[in-house]
């Protein structure tokens, strides 16, 4: 069966006894793993590992020995309590095995399948969505609202005070992979200490690392029409594993920030006042470049940029063309957007 977004948190904390299989899938590997661990801890009473009640195997192991997966599902715990069978890197090759397991008498274990992105045609996804004893839980990349919630929840868990400028800076600079975001936030919790506080300068110093600054540089280069620098910067980001959607969303955030600032200028505010009012504050090394771009990008030109970037992100998700190519073409086109006459 399918779970609604509102049903997912409750299910993760306490999966019903009548559910035999939970498929967790999506391109956000960190969120997939986090949700699988939440289910595991919920069933095992907070433990991440219990040799008597937790069995782990890879998708290849389950595919090569489907009888073992069925046996693990049917086996009872020697010490009592519900068991978890966790299968990483699951894929459509397991669909027939899961179909068979769902015909067996209800076992005492929950099979947790961790998979990457599965489209609507996936046989494994179809099997879990169609069965009353199974659920399919999609893991979509975090958007700004989800990242902000993760930041606040993480800091609240350590009783750390953090101001809104710092939260918004983090939203703009963390990626959309949950695991990477958590790693960066853990660095900040160690920096502040339980019960401490974080200032904006602390956050910039910790998160404003070379990879983040490289992403900013590529976006500024693209808008400035620095084609060679943009292409070389994209090459580095792709080699480091930065996704095309992450780059496009960062460019969109920059475009929205420019558009808001430009509208304030058009309303009669001075350039210095506009710059000072930007939230989160600009990284000091980029202030002069932002000033320059405000002069070169009036609202009409920015709107064309935002339209181009939105189309590129949609094409990454629905056309089947290589995402890196779509992203590269979009960013290299930004500097060619003509300035309005007059």
Descriptive account of the structure:
The protein is an alpha/beta fold and 342 residues long. The chain has three domains: 8-138, Rossmann fold, CATH 3.40.50.300; 144-207, Helicase, Ruva Protein, domain 3, CATH 1.10.8; 210-334, Zinc Finger, Delta Prime, domain 3 (Up-down Bundle). 58% of the residues lie in helices and 10% in strands. It contains 17 helices and seven strands. It has helices at residues 8-13, 29-43, 59-64, 66-74, 95-101, 123-130, 144-157, 164-173, 178-192, 200-207, 210-223, 227-239, 244-266, 271-277, 287-296, 299-318, 323-334, and strands spanning 21-25, 54-58, 83-90, 109-115, 134-138, 161-162, 197-198. It has a five-stranded parallel sheet with strand order 2-3-4-1-5, sandwiched between helices. Strands 6-7 form a two-stranded parallel ribbon. Helix 7 (144-157) packs parallel to helix 9 (178-192) and helix 9 (178-192) crosses helix 10. The radius of gyration is 24 Å and the shape is elongated.
Q: Gist?
A:
This protein is α/β, with parallel strands linked by helices and 342 residues long.
